[in-house]
Amino acid sequence: MSNPQQLRYSKEHEWLTAAEDGVSTVGITEFAANALGDVVYVQLPEVGDTVAAGETCGELESTKSVSDLYAPVSGEVTAVNQDVADDPSLVNTAPFEGGWLFKVRVSDEPGDLLSADEYTEFAGN
């Protein structure tokens, strides 16, 4: 399993792109998607919602369990991935591409986000 080098990662297994015009894209890692199993439902924040780093902002339901979705940064949600809402299996099949979850205009970023190598070591994969 390889974690894209250009992304940053949270210890809750979310990934985050570098901000473009202040907006970053958020998803869950391949490690998290594999641990969840087949994702069958996603509850995402709404456009306009404010999310806080480290706080829950949605849910991912799989055939095995329900897991909280955590915001890796604080800010305002600017977009949600309707494709994932319509087809939650994208989280499993393309966690770093089509399976992204939401976009956020970053207002605050915690200092504990991990590089790809740090996340790989943290996740033990």
Strand-helix topology:
Layout: E1 8-9, E2 14-16, E3 23-28, H1 30-36, E4 39-43, E5 50-51, E6 56-62, E7 66-70, E8 74-80, H2 82-86, H3 90-93, E9 102-108, H4 116-123
Antiparallel strand pairs: 1-2, 2-3, 3-9, 4-6, 5-8, 6-7, 8-9
List keywords for this structure.
single chain; 125 residues; alpha+beta; 19% helix
Structural account:
The protein has helices spanning 30-36, 82-86, 90-93, 116-123, and strands spanning 8-9, 14-16, 23-28, 39-43, 50-51, 56-62, 66-70, 74-80, 102-108. The mean pLDDT is 95. The strands form two sheets. Strands 1-2-3-9-8-5 form a six-stranded antiparallel beta sheet. It is α+β, with helices and mostly antiparallel strands. The protein is globular and about 35 Å long. It contains four helices and nine strands; from the N terminus they run βββαβββββααβα. The N and C termini lie close together (7 Å).
Q: Could you estimate the helical fraction of the residues in percent?
A: 10-25%
In DSSP terms, counting alpha (H) and pi (I) runs of 4 or more, how many helices? 4
Main beta-sheet annotation: 6 strands, antiparallel
- Note the run of SSEs as H and E: EEEHEEEEEHHEH
Rg, Cα atoms, Å: 13 Å
Average pLDDT over all residues: 95
Give the termini distance in whole angstroms. 7 Å
- Which regions have little confidence, pLDDT < 50, spanning 5+ residues? none
Q: Assign an overall shape.
A: globular
Order of strands across the main sheet? 1-2-3-9-8-5
Structural class: alpha+beta
Q: What is the total tally of β strands? A: 9
Strand content: 35-45%
